[in-house]
Amino acid sequence: MSYLIRQMGHIALATPDPEGSAQDLAEISGPRIIARTSDLVTLSSNNRRHEVGYFKSSRKAALAIGLEAINAEAVGEVRRRAMDHGCKILSERSYFPNIEKALRFLTPEGPIFEVHTPVPRDQNARYVGHGVHPVRLEHVNVRVENAKAFGGLCEAVFGMRLSDRTTNDELQWLRAADGFHHTLAIGTGEAKLHHYGFDARCFEDLAKVADTLALKSRTMLWGPGRHGAGDNIFTYYADPNGCVVENSIEMERIDCDDVYAPRTWSLGPESRVRNLWGPLEGPEYRAAGIPFALEP
Ligand SMILES: [Fe+2]
């Protein structure tokens, strides 16, 4: 099966406070605010017009996980496959402006995706301002009741490939055509967006994230540590809406699809799949995340 998704796209988040949410993300993780209207504040950490959008709403929720299709035809192919797999088409237009073609749909397990043609690359890659200025929005992590079924659906509909899994598919990591170990991570639980992750530049940047949190009288939820699956050095904190933000470095690259074989990790007490360095995540980390919503 060939890839229909090239890489992580944009994420659309609903919040009562788009401006405050955007300022918080900019001050800590470091993408800068690109544009604002009364209903939407967008941010980007590179030359893209947007990576994250906070939409004005009465609720705190995830509106869509964006995945960039390899081309416009791939959006149509995803549409055919999504319908074959019991997904409900919600819209043929993106939540965001400046997207040529998009498809938004609800999966049977609850997550909502937007598969879309590329976000315009017309901004300066470098910029002034606070925060650690990461490389890019890198991946998302969702929770669903039936992770095995959901992972299979994502492989079938998106043409994504399995990079790692746990014994009974409680956790799965799927990659897109760009070769990063995962664009989509799946865990087991009530359906929600658990976290969105930025690719930072160096370990010192992760310390700067922690220092900024401390200045705001907040702390990390988990980390630093190094994931077994993905090999990235991670840190996590909660955003003002209750979703988790990951800042990490050194995610594994799959250089050659033809020779890579997915690994299977146990989830037993000896397992290092989640942290090679030290302790597992706490209850606050597990409980965090925001539900998916059909509209702002
Ligand atoms: Fe992650």
Describe this structure in words.
With 296 residues, the protein is of the alpha/beta class. It has two domains: 5-116, 2,3-Dihydroxybiphenyl 1,2-Dioxygenase, domain 1, CATH 3.10.180.10; 136-287, 2,3-Dihydroxybiphenyl 1,2-Dioxygenase, domain 1 (Roll), CATH 3.10.180.10. It has helices spanning 18-28, 72-84, 147-158, 203-215, 283-287; strands at 5-15, 32-36, 40-44, 52-56, 61-69, 88-91, 102-106, 112-116, 136-144, 161-166, 172-175, 184-188, 192-199, 222-226, 233-238, 244-249, 263-265. A nine-stranded mixed sheet has the order 14-15-16-13-9-12-11-10-17, covered by helices on one side. Helix 2 runs antiparallel to helix 3. The chain is globular and about 50 Å long. 49% of the residues are buried. The mean pLDDT is 97. Bound molecules: fe (ii) ion.
Query: Which small-molecule ligands are present, each listed once?
Result: fe (ii) ion
Q: What strand line-up does the widest sheet have? A: 14-15-16-13-9-12-11-10-17
Average predicted local confidence, pLDDT? 97
Return Rg in Å.
18 Å
- The total count of strands amounts to 17
What is the name of the CATH topology of the largest domain? 2,3-Dihydroxybiphenyl 1,2-Dioxygenase, domain 1
Helix content: 10-25%
Spell out the helices and strands N to C: EHEEEEHEEEEHEEEEHEEEEH
The main sheet comes to:
9 strands, mixed
Summary keywords:
296 residues, 5 helices, 2 domains, eight-stranded mixed beta sheet, 17 strands, 2,3-Dihydroxybiphenyl 1,2-Dioxygenase, domain 1, single chain, alpha/beta, binds fe (ii) ion, globular
